[in-house]
């Protein structure tokens, strides 16, 4: 599977401080594709993005009784599974323009607020996958209010979360766009009961495939995203020539 890569003098848009939370997901995906398309191609083979390094900026908060029991904070069941060999049978809802999976009684989101904020997922590989995808969908709405809650409630405490909260506080509502992106596949790169790395493949409305990794941690009875110290939520963004290596999974 071939991949075009930027030259050594170019920066991937997802590494820039401005792309902090997934509010910029769609625009960043398009920007990443645009940069890659117009740079010389090489013959390197695209490899799944490596697992993100452990966040050492702050220790995990003490587990609540629900977390200690392996149950989510809203009472969803846990699972002893450590992998997914096939796509889960999912019901999808549009969150903004992006489809997100939902199974409120078993996988999550177990809690959906009046403003549309979605949280509380099962302690399982499927729960981690659903959580990652719902984070991406929430952010793609461009809502400053939802992104502020996302930064405050769904990011692991530390320097990265502090940076994301600061960035979210300065956000303005995103304008409308004719461009959108939808998930088309996933790969769980690693999973333990406390950590998971979820690789999501998207197709933009321009027909390009890109993928990115969300690094997740189980804490306080829910899955939370581990951002980089500068607040960047996504890592390892790269264009894909096809979806080889990903399990097909899509709501649109």
From TrEMBL:
Q: Which UniProt keywords apply?
A: Membrane, Transmembrane, Transmembrane helix
Q: Which InterPro entries match?
A: DUF8175 (IPR058488)
Taking every annotated instance into account, which residue ranges of this chain make up the domain DUF8175? 56-247
Query: Pfam families of this UniProt entry?
Result: DUF8175 (PF26526)
Which residue spans traverse the membrane?
20-39
Q: Supply the name of the protein.
A: DUF8175 domain-containing protein
Native species: Arthrobacter oryzae
């Amino acid at each position: 599977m071939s991949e075009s890569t930027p030259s050594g003098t170019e920066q991937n848009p997802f590494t820039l401080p401005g792309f902090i939370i997934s509010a910029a997901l769609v625009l960043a995906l398009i920007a990443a594709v645009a940069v890659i398309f117009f740079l010389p191609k090489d013959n390197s083979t695209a490899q799944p993005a490596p697992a993100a390094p452990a966040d050492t900026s702050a220790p995990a908060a003490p587990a609540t009784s629900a977390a200690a029991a392996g149950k989510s904070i809203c009472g969803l069941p846990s699972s002893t599974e450590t992998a997914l060999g096939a796509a889960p049978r999912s019901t999808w809802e549009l969150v903004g323009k992006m489809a997100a999976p939902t199974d409120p009684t078993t996988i999550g989101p177990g809690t959906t607020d009046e403003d549309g904020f979605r949280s509380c997922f099962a302690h399982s590989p499927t729960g981690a996958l659903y959580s990652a995808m719902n984070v991406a969908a929430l952010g793609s709405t461009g809502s400053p209010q939802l992104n502020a809650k996302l930064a405050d409630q769904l990011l692991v405490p530390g320097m990265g979360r502090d940076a994301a909260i600061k960035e979210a506080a300065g956000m303005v509502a995103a304008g409308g766009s004719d461009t959108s992106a939808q998930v088309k596949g996933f790969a769980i790169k690693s999973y333990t009961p406390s950590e998971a790395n979820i690789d999501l493949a998207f197709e933009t409305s321009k027909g390009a495939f890109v993928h990115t990794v969300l690094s997740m941690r189980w804490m306080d009875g829910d899955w939370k995203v581990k951002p980089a110290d500068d607040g960047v939520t996504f890592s390892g963004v790269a264009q894909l020539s096809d979806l080889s290596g990903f399990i097909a999974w899509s709501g649109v």
